[in-house]
Each structure stands twice: as C-alpha cells, then as structure tokens.
Design brief:
The complex is a heterodimer of chains A (410) and B (469).
Chain A: E1 3-9, H1 13-25, E2 31-34, H2 47-52, H3 65-70, E3 73-76, E4 81-85, E5 90-93, E6 98-106, E7 110-112, H4 131-143, E8 146-150, H5 154-165, E9 169-174, H6 186-198, E10 202-205, E11 209-213, E12 216-219, E13 224-226, E14 229-232, E15 236-238, E16 254-255, E17 267-269, E18 274-277, E19 284-285, H7 290-305, E20 319-324, E21 327-333, E22 342-348, E23 350-357, E24 360-367, H8 373-381, H9 390-395, H10 397-409
Chain B: E1 7-10, H1 20-29, E2 36-39, E3 46-49, H2 58-62, E4 68-70, E5 77-79, H3 89-93, E6 99-102, E7 107-110, H4 119-123, E8 129-132, H5 134-142, H6 160-171, E9 175-178, H7 183-186, E10 202-203, H8 210-224, E11 230-236, H9 238-241, H10 245-254, E12 259-264, H11 304-309, E13 315-320, H12 324-337, E14 343-348, H13 352-355, H14 362-371, E15 378-381, E16 385-388, H15 398-402, H16 413-436
Helix pairs in contact in B: 8-10
Classes of the chains: A alpha/beta (410), B alpha/beta (469).
The structure holds flavin-adenine dinucleotide and iron/sulfur cluster (SF4) (2 copies).
C-alpha cells in the first residue's frame, strides 16, 4: 500500500504552493501529489490561450519532472480519488489503489457547474476546465460556423472572444443584466459589452436558455439561435463528490478554519475546493481565483508541516484582471459595492471607480486604464487609513498608492 | 550555506525627484521605466515603486503560464515574453508595483537589474539609488572555509557571529587569533571539551594584556621570517576601551604590526550587562540602572576609534554589519596595514540580549545607528587623514534609532536632546578632521553613482537636505 507523510490531492496552484511551503520546513518527509489529469501541472487559467492557439498545450506546463525529483515528491497522474477513509487515513483511487497518509491536502479544485437546462444531456456541449477540454474546444471551433456560450463570466467571455476572432458567429446568453456580474458595476460592464458588440458578438443579457437541441438553442425571449458549438460556462462548483461519507464537512465547498484545517484531524483543504473566509464580510465564501488558491495552499502547507511562522488566513479578496480585445479591465475588492460606501467614478477616455468606506479603500475597478492591482489589494488588506491623503489618492490613485506602499516597505 | 543576491536599494531621504533614473531605465529597456519615482507625503520628498526581486515572489506564484521565475543564480525574477499571455495576474500579486503594465507595448514590464549594472543607479546623482553588492560578497566568502566550528553558543540574533565567521573567512588560515574575555570566547572560540572552537591558533589572554601578547607574537613571527601571518585580536569594548586600554595604546604608540578588531557592544554584555567606557549616555545597564535615583548612564561614551586616530595609527576605521560592503573593504585595508603598523578596526555590534532588541531587528539597528550618525562610518590613515565612507548628511534624527532599542526606553526629552547634541558634536568634529585631510587618492574616491557616496569629498557638490523620514 503506497504511503506518504504528505498526500496532496490535486496538482494545480493550491497543491503546488502547499508543496513549496512544506518543503521549506521539511525537506525529507515523504510526499505524493495525486491528480486525475494525465499531464504535468498546468493552470486552468491558461486554457483560453490554448483555445486561441496562442499557447501550445505542451508549453503551458508549470513544472517538469526534474522539479518533482528535486523536491522529493512522487507525481502521480491518472489518479482520480474516489473516496476518503479519514479514520484509516487512506484515500482510494478510481483504479483501486489505496494511499495512506499522515496529513492530507484536499486541493481538488472546482469543476464546471452544469445548469439544469432541458435537452442538455441529449446534445454535445463543451466546458473549459482541463487541457483536454481546451483541445476539444479548439478542435470543434475549426468545423463550426456558429457558437452559443452560456454565461458571461470570465470563462465564457474569454472563449467568446477567441471564437469571434476565429471567425465564428457567436452569441452569449447571460441571466444577469450585465457581463462579469459581481466583479464590475454596470457602467464598467457597458464598456466591455460595447467591445463585444463591436466585434460582432451578440450579447443576450438578462436572458435564460430554456432548451437546447442538436444544432440550436432556445432562449426565453422566444428566439432560437443556431449553434454548431455549445459552450457551457455558467460557473463552477467545488469537486467534493469523493469526500462523501468521509465525515469531512462540506457546505458549498469544504469548510475550513483560519488555518485551512477541515473538521477532520490531519485533513486540510485549499483553493477552489475550499470554503474559507471572505475578507469583506468575514463569512465563509467561495472565491475561486489563483491568488486565494496560492495563499490558502501556502497556509495549509505550513500547517501540515508544523511551520511555526504560519499566519491565519485573513480572508479572500476578489481580484480580477481581464484583457479583452487588447483592452484591459481590472477590479479588486468590493468594486461594485453601492451600499454604505463612498464611490468615486471618473470617465474621461478611461473608466475608474474607487470605493471607500470610512476613508479606507475597499474596492477599485477600472476599464482601459491600468493600475497596480496588487498595491490596491494591499491597501485594502491592511485597511490603510487614507484620510490624510484622500484628495491625492482620488486624483492620482496609482501614484499615491505607490507612495504609500513605498513607505510601508521601510 | 544559502545564497544571497545583490539588490537595488532606494533611500528616500536622498532622492530629489530629478527622475534621471526613469529616463535612463526607459532608454535601456526601450519602453516604460521599470522604476517609478512618485511624490512623497511631504512637499519635496519622493518615494518609489521598484521590483524588490522578492525571495518569496508573489508575482511568480500567481502567474498561470510559468512566464515568471526566480533565477537561482542571480536572484532576479525573469520574465519570458514567449510564455506570457498578458493576463496581468502578476500585477495583482505584487504589492510594490514591481511589475506593471507597460502601455507602450501593452505588456508587463519589470526590472531585471540590467545584467548586474543597473542603468538607473549609474545615473542617480544623489546616491538615493544604490546597487548593493552585499549578496555577492556573502556568496564569495560564504564559499570559503569557515574557520569557526559549527554550534557556537551566541545569543539568537547576535551579529558577532557574522563578524567572526566572515572576518575569519576573509583573513584565512594564516592567522593567530587572540580573544580576550568577552562574548567571543564565551561563544566557545577558546574552549570545547579541551578543544578550541576555531581552526586557527587561538588564545585567551587576560582582559588587560591582549595587545601586549600580540606584540610579542608578531615579533616572534617576524624573527623567524613568517611575514604572512595576520596577528589579530577579536576583542570586546571592555577589553579594549577600559582595562585593556593601556596595552592597546602602548602597542599603537610603538607601531606594533597587529590587527586589532574591537567588537563594540557597548558594555560587558557577556557577564551581566554592566556598563563600559563605550556605553553611551542614558543607556540602561545592570550597573547604570533606571529607577528613582538614576536614569541610565550619566556619562558620555568615550569615542575609542577617534582616540586611536590620535595615536597616528597606520589604519583606523569604524564599520557595521549593516553595511557589509564597507566592512569588507575596510577589512582588506586593515589587513594590509597590519603588516606595516598598528591597524585598528572598530565594529559596532548591537546586543539583542543586553540592549533589549528583538533578534530579528539587530541588522536594522546596525543600519539605523549608521543612518542616524550615531555611529558614523569613516576611516583614517596616518598619511591621508580621515574620510567618511558613508555620507553623514541627510541623517535620520537619532530618536529614530534609540526608539527601537529597549535600553533607551526610559529616555526623557532632555536626555534625548543630550544624545542628539553629542552625535552632532561628534559629526562636526569628524567633518572638521575630514576637511583638514588631503583629498583621498583616486582609488579611494567613490566613482559617480557608487554604492557608498563619500559625503565629505570636496568634489561632491553639497546637496540640499530633502526630507527626514
Ligand atoms: C478558463 C478559466 C479562466 C480562469 N481565469 C482566471 C483568472 O483570470 N484569474 C484567476 O485568478 N483565476 C482564474 N481562473 C480560476 C483559477 O484557474 C482557479 O482559481 C485555480 O486554478 C484554482 O486552483 P486550485 O489548485 O484550487 O484547483 P484547480 O486548478 O481546479 O485544480 C484542481 C486539481 O485537482 C485535480 N483533481 C480534481 N479532482 C480530483 C480527484 N477526484 N482526484 C485527483 N485529482 C483531482 C485536478 O486534476 C487538478 O489538478 C480561471 C479558471 C478557468 C477555468
Ligand atoms: S514584481 Fe513584485 S512580487 Fe514580483 S519579485 Fe518583484 S517585488 Fe516581488
Ligand atoms: S501577465 Fe504576468 S501573470 Fe500573466 S502570464 Fe504574463 S507574466 Fe504571467
């Protein structure tokens, strides 16, 4: 029976960061990284670029075998976990193999959430979460003339842009009233929507797909759209099916505390699969982005290796850096908030929205104007009081933010 | 032994906002400048955004394409244009504006330190930007044989171990070492179960006679024709400034060919933190307590290195582990001088235990002690006189330094004013001596934009004070 002191399920951002954190304090403890994928680690975020052809599938791998050899970690591909026996400290794989562990990291990420649309199980549709998905979509694009995308989130819009650039007639159907809901307020979204419309993508906002059939999609406004290709990008949900019956507490994701511990001794969780603290509200929330996966992975790894320098998770901030048709949209924190906050908007050429609460920055978004997202995130996280420099900050946020972080550095 | 890397440092107090660095960078990189100078909080002050080449780089961790990676050889976080997909996630990772959108090419741009010769540093006219080579020095000497055994029992965070191990690596095996009573033998240099803690001959003189014994040893080696042996002391301030002083003074007066290194932790820290002759005014020690009748030491410290200049020694210098490049250069000159006459090196060494500073703040304390002119860095030779090796202008107020040290916690405003006045007086005297000295030989003059601008050089235009931070 294979055994590892540290067993990591998942091979993406959260697991890789945990590996690093563990090896900082424990260079020798046996370690294995299991993944259901058949390749070396890669990021789901890179997939739209594989679809567009900008990145070759073999050039997007984040680590090579030499890395795992140097870090004394067994990398096990094609290893889908199907169950966890927390008492016996053992994980069973699809192929029947059982792995014993001393500490376990659940970093199985998220998978596309498939909405209950009539007829969907009778047609071929695409999702985008694995390299195989991306290669499949790229292949299908070649033969298709029309495409329909369900959902105007990041994944849907990325793909829609790629397909439009490749010459397909693309329609995006989104339930909410504007694109990228949650990240951007309506005004910012309008700019993004305009770009899509200008590039020939039809946006059906505030609309639902009611039924699909081979080659066509019916929308609740009564229209039927031709679709050689159908992409479902209506969000993701944590991969927790393999934890059923294990006793690990799962709400919408695996519930973790400030140290990324689950309710079960010796079991940690991090990344898209984990339901950790939200910075703004302090409640448990799912924030499925790389920066949170990386931070949570580090904290979990530190906990697993008993690193005494571990710091509690302060909560996740939504971060969004989005390039569309060569333009740029950025947002961090509660950039779309309206209640109980002071929002300052400017729109001359570029759009900018700063959200403050009690003279502290809580959110920032811009379209067509770059800013240092990381600096603004740090001002939010440290709850830096801006009263002394508020006018300067509102007038020149980038310069003033840089100044503030330069001072903090010393 | 780990590796260390060179780094670009920015001193806000010296920046006058000319922006030359930005121009030079954008020329060198053919795009937006990787360093950005922005207005500071006070009028006329400036701050910067610049990649710090983090040891734990967030930009690398969040990059989904593997386009960013830290080079294990030079420590630079490199960017691979062919892998980058322009997602800008790295800009969300960096809290210092170290990687940002270069609008001229619509991609990210970041500092790569220009192959070890940064364009920005070269043009900085004020010395606000420095390319600090401490990392390569550390690597070079770290790779040499450590002449102390592992497991010296110093206090956590004590920088005497850094001084001992690195100085001896530089000096090498051809040396005879004296370590009079103090922290250095206390750490085990002279005794481990009947064996020494060093790999060179070491002896443990009395507190009073170190320099005399070294004089004899040197004369013996001279007689048998061994001219290659460095005869040296690693002594504390007590054994040098107080009870050992007659021997030191005598040896200096006779011009004995000895390298005498004083590791000054401002007291008898090894035996219970008593005051010494170099304990500064106002310091708490176990013999200058703080209470109803006393508020720390009531006398000023004696300035031992300055006293040594009055002996017309071959070489006298002050140094600090906060400025390793400077310390290393001075070690070179001190060793060379010790074959010709008395060579005296005074290294300031904060004591985390006796001074009540957190172990992690010792090097910070070293830096601030220099940056506040509490311990100015200079060197003296009997032919060229005195010169500063670190600008004494634009210094922080001394309050910034004493604030971080527990032994000054009780200081009254009056006491603080006294310390500041004393510091100003010392600097004024040193400046006077530097002004009286002939201009330094070309080799000693810092080249333009070098890491240690020599503030007192007549060729350096006097710069207006920008701001105190
Ligand atoms: C198209 C797309 C675009 C995105 N764009 C952005 C963006 O711009 N910015 C951003 O911050 N984030 C973006 N994200 C989200 C980001 O990719 C995720 O937040 C991040 O990958 C989460 O990392 P993770 O380690 O938690 O899990 P994942 O990356 O989901 O990895 C899960 C891992 O677990 C493995 N696994 C799953 N189940 C099992 C099992 N049962 N047994 C064994 N192994 C298993 C998988 O093979 C995989 O290795 C995007 C995602 C997608 C899909
Ligand atoms: S870009 Fe920022 S995060 Fe990356 S190494 Fe530089 S300072 Fe660190
Ligand atoms: S923009 Fe930054 S994070 Fe994105 S791929 Fe390029 S280097 Fe990596």
């Amino acid at each position: 029976m294979p055994e590892a002191k540290y067993l990591l399920v998942g091979s993406s951002h959260a697991a890789l960061e945990a590996l690093r954190a563990i090896r900082l304090v424990d260079p020798d403890g046996s370690m294995a990284m299991l993944t259901r994928d058949d390749r070396l680690p890669y990021s789901p975020t890179i997939l739209p670029y594989v679809v567009s052809g900008r990145s070759a599938p073999d050039k997007v791998l984040l680590r090579d075998p030499a890395f795992f050899a140097a870090n004394n970690c067994a990398y096990v591909p094609n290893a889908r976990a199907v169950s966890l026996d927390a008492k016996a400290r053992a994980v069973t794989l699809e192929n029947g193999e059982v792995w014993r562990y001393q500490s376990l990291l659940i970093a199985s990420g998220a998978a596309p959430a498939i909405p209950p649309v009539k007829g969907l199980d009778g047609v071929t549709y695409h999702v985008l979460r694995s390299l195989a998905d991306a290669e499949g979509l790229r292949g299908a694009m070649g033969a298709a003339k029309t495409a329909v995308v369900l959902g105007a989130g990041l994944v849907g819009l990325h793909a829609a842009e790629n397909m439009a650039e490749a010459g397909l007639k693309v329609t995006v159907v989104e339930m909410q009233g504007h694109v990228l809901p949650g990240y951007f307020d309506a005004k910012a979204s309008t700019r993004i929507e305009d770009a899509f419309t200008t590039h020939g993508v039809e946006l059906k906002l505030g609309r639902k797909v009611v039924e699909v059939a081979p080659g066509k999609v019916m929308v609740d406004d009564g229209t039927t759209i031709a679709a050689d290709l159908l992409l479902v990008a209506t969000g993701v949900r944590p991969v927790t099916d393999w934890l059923e019956g294990s006793g690990v507490l799962v709400d919408r994701g695996v519930v973790v505390d400030e140290a990324m511990r689950t309710n079960i001794d010796g079991v940690w969780a991090a990344g898209d699969v984990a339901q950790a603290t939200d910075f703004a509200s302090g409640n448990k929330a799912l924030i499925g982005i790389i920066p949170t996966a990386v931070e949570q992975g580090k904290i979990a790894g530190q906990g697993m290796a008993g690193d005494s320098y571990r710091k509690d998770y302060a909560g996740g901030l939504p971060v969004n850096t989005y390039r569309f048709f060569g333009r740029v949209a950025l947002s961090i924190g509660r950039a779309a908030a309206t209640d109980g906050v002071e929002a300052v908007e400017t729109a001359s050429g570029a759009y900018r929205r700063l959200v403050l609460e009690g003279n502290r920055l809580v959110g920032y978004a811009s379209v067509d104007e770059p800013f240092d997202v990381g600096i603004m995130g740090e001002l939010i996280r440290r709850r830096v009081d801006l009263s002394e420099c508020k006018d300067a900050f509102l007038a020149r946020p980038v310069e003033t933010g840089r100044r503030l972080m330069s001072e903090q550095w010393r | 032994m780990g590796v260390a890397f060179d780094s670009i440092s920015f001193k806000a107090s010296l920046c006058d906002g000319c922006g030359d660095c930005m121009t030079a960078c954008s020329q060198a990189k053919g795009g937006a400048s990787r360093i950005s100078i922005v207005p500071g909080a006070k009028a006329g002050s400036f701050e910067t955004a610049l990649c710090r080449q983090c040891g734990d780089p967030k930009c690398v961790q969040v990059c989904p394409s593997g386009a960013l990676d830290k080079d294990g050889g030079n420590g630079i976080i490199g960017w691979d244009a062919s892998k980058c997909v322009d997602c800008l996630l790295c800009t969300a990772g960096c809290a210092y504006g170290g990687i940002a959108v270069d609008e001229s090419v619509a991609r990210v741009g970041k500092c790569d330190q220009c192959d070890g010769d940064p364009a920005c540093v070269k043009v900085c006219p004020t010395g606000a930007l420095e390319f600090r080579k401490a990392g390569s020095i550390f690597n070079e000497y770290g790779a040499k044989e450590d002449l102390f055994v592992p497991g010296l029992s110093g206090c956590q965070g004590c920088n005497s171990e850094l001084i001992m191990r690195h100085a001896m690596r530089k000096i090498g095996r051809n040396s005879v070492l004296a370590t009079p009573p103090g922290c250095i033998p206390g750490m085990g240099s002279v005794g481990y179960n009947g064996k020494t803690g060093t790999k060179v001959p070491v002896f443990h003189p009395l507190l009073t006679n170190t320099a005399s014994m070294l004089s004899g040893i040197r004369r013996y080696y001279d007689r048998i024709g061994r001219k290659d042996i460095v005869v040296m002391a690693l002594a504390g301030d007590g054994g040098t400034a107080d009870c050992g002083f007659h021997a030191v003074s005598g040896a200096a007066e006779r011009g004995e060919k000895v390298l005498y290194v004083c590791v000054d932790n401002e007291g008898y820290m090894n035996t219970g933190m008593q005051r010494s002759g170099t304990t500064p005014y106002g310091s708490w020690t176990s013999t200058t307590p703080v209470g109803e009748h006393m508020q720390g030491k009531t006398q000023d410290a004696k300035n031992l290195p300055l006293i040594m200049t009055a002996h017309k020694c071959r070489y006298v210098a002050t140094a600090s582990t906060g400025y390793m490049e400077d310390l290393y250069e001075k070690l070179d000159r001190a060793i060379a001088a010790s074959f010709e006459g008395f060579s005296y090196l005074h290294i300031y060494s904060p004591c985390p235990t006796g001074w009540r500073i957190p172990s992690s703040k010792v090097i910070d304390a070293c830096r601030l002690s220099v940056d506040s002119n509490f311990n100015p860095l200079w060197e003296y030779t009997n032919t060229s006189g005195l010169r500063f090796t670190h600008s004494p202008d634009n210094a922080h107020p001394v309050s910034a330094y004493v604030k971080m040290i527990g032994k000054y916690r009780h200081l009254s405003p009056d006491q603080l004013a006294h310390i500041q006045a004393k510091v100003d007086e010392q600097v004024a005297l040193l400046k006077l001596m530097a002004a009286e000295s002939p201009p330094p030989p070309a080799a000693h003059r810092a080249p333009a934009g070098s890491s240690t601008p020599a503030g007192a050089e007549p060729s350096q235009p006097a710069r207006r004070e920008i701001a105190r931070n």
